[in-house]
Amino acid sequence: MPTPHWNAPVADGPVDATVRLPGSKSMTNRALILAALAEDPVRITRPLHSRDTELMAGALRALGASIGEDSKAVAGGSSPQKDADWQTVPQELRGPARVDAGLAGTVMRFIPPVAALAAGDVAIDGDPYARRRPMGPIITALRALGVSIDDGGRGALPFTVHGTGAVDGGPVTIDASGSSQLVSGLLLAAPRFGKGVEVRHEGPPVPSAPHLAMTVRMLRDRGVTVETETDVWRVAPGPVRGGEWVIEPDLSNAAQFLGAALVTGGRVTVPDWPDDTTQPGDALRDLLARMGADVAPGPDGLTVRGSGGFGGLDADLHDVGELTPVIAALAALADGPSRLTGIAHLRGHETDRLAALVTEINGLGGDVRELPDGLEIRPRPLHGGVFRTYDDHRMVMAAAVLGLAVPGVEVENPGTVGKTLPGFTELWASMLASA
Ligand SMILES: O=C(O)C1=C[C@@H](OP(=O)(O)O)[C@@H](O)[C@H](O)C1
Ligand SMILES: C=C(OP(=O)(O)O)C(=O)O
């Protein structure tokens, strides 16, 4: 259900704020999958509660997983986000079931291999645009691993996995150039396949290397043997241990807040920034420094300071594509031109992000040009207007950044930001109250 437009607030002066962020979507959804496959109970501490993670929990519950909420963990009531822990106990997976993947890449790519481990039919569908996101390679790969899938010949959602309760597994070749999640999905369920899996990628480079590293690290953390070499991942069959996951703050969702320090010449600190992380958002330290920010890790978290003006950026964002919308918004406000490359795969994200960013930033008077694999951005004075968001949470975040400096940015359907950050507009307002 679309929400009324949101007038993105202009910053009255330099922000000076500490912004505590909810948990990582990518870690939460991996932890939920591994919890559903674990041989022991699991507690997921400080998970993200958002549309994508609630859809993942819902999908696993539909398959028989027992996922409870520990409401004792809800802290103080001061946070606009829900922050209950999740607890699971081992359960047999079973169909028949219907799964709504929404627009969540993690749900549509991580659930089908798990569905194949459930006895019974599992029908999977999602939002209208979900039917256009790349799924063909994982359908083909699962079939090669012995899974029966009826996709009506579409190679896309919706489709039905005819689960038998067991998957042979073994070697498989896949073209994962469209999304790293096609590989992560196979790896996460593979400890429960009879022969595990050996996934070999063949095709143009796989994006999002940090997310693949996250998959490997989280599997190993649960006692699963994983070997990797260039474009090859091997997961041995074996038990998935239970225990506790403590979810890190979502560093990709830090982008717009840290960016606000740059735009307003202020200071933003994000507490609990991990020292050692596989999250792609950690690249913000380097990217924002290259645009002229002063970036300082410290005991209070990561602090970014801006000095007023800031420069453009020439960067290959292939590994950290999900940062693009906010980086593009910053680039549109910078003192010099930017070139963002390596991100052709963003055409298969929540929307065609390259087209969406060109259309919407140019609609405010900007000068953004689409490249075969990215964007060229030449800053120009911008004016207000309606900024469409295409059911893409990161388009809301990008619009908020533009609105800091441009009066009259009216964001269409801001509620779509709840895909990964419900309560965003409240958090944004409290950061701006410090200006
Ligand atoms: O595995 C994950 O959690 C993700 C992988 C990336 O997908 P792509 O490789 O499709 O870009 C990223 O953009 C997405 O937001 C989350
Ligand atoms: C690409 C993204 O999401 P998804 O997990 O749906 O692919 C994203 O969050 O930027």
UniProtKB/TrEMBL annotation:
GO molecular function, one term: 3-phosphoshikimate 1-carboxyvinyltransferase activity
Keyword flag Metal-binding: no
Gene Ontology biological process: amino acid biosynthetic process; aromatic amino acid family biosynthetic process; chorismate biosynthetic process
Pathway: Metabolic intermediate biosynthesis; chorismate biosynthesis; chorismate from D-erythrose 4-phosphate and phosphoenolpyruvate: step 6/7
Enzyme class: transferase
Catalytic residues, chain numbering: E322
Subcellular location: Cytoplasm
Principal place of residence: cytoplasm
Residue positions binding phosphoenolpyruvate: K25, G105, R133, Q181, R353, R394, K419
InterPro entries, alphabetized: Enolpyruvate_Tfrase_dom, Enolpyruvate_Tfrase_sf, EPSP_synthase, EPSP_synthase_CS, RNA3'P_cycl/enolpyr_Trfase_a/b
E.C. no: 2.5.1.19
Domain Enolpyruvate transferase: 13-426
Catalytic activity: 3-phosphoshikimate + phosphoenolpyruvate = 5-O-(1-carboxyvinyl)-3-phosphoshikimate + phosphate
Record key words, sorted: Amino-acid biosynthesis, Aromatic amino acid biosynthesis, Cytoplasm, Transferase
Signal sequence, start to end: none
Residues that coordinate or bind 3-phosphoshikimate: K25, S26, R30, S179, S180, Q181, S208, E322, H349
Biological function: Catalyzes the transfer of the enolpyruvyl moiety of phosphoenolpyruvate (PEP) to the 5-hydroxyl of shikimate-3-phosphate (S3P) to produce enolpyruvyl shikimate-3-phosphate and inorganic phosphate.
Family: Belongs to the EPSP synthase family.
PANTHER family: AROM/DEHYDROQUINATE SYNTHASE (PTHR21090), PENTAFUNCTIONAL AROM POLYPEPTIDE (PTHR21090:SF5)
Name of the protein this chain belongs to: 3-phosphoshikimate 1-carboxyvinyltransferase
Phylogenetic lineage: Bacteria, Bacillati, Actinomycetota, Actinomycetes, Streptosporangiales
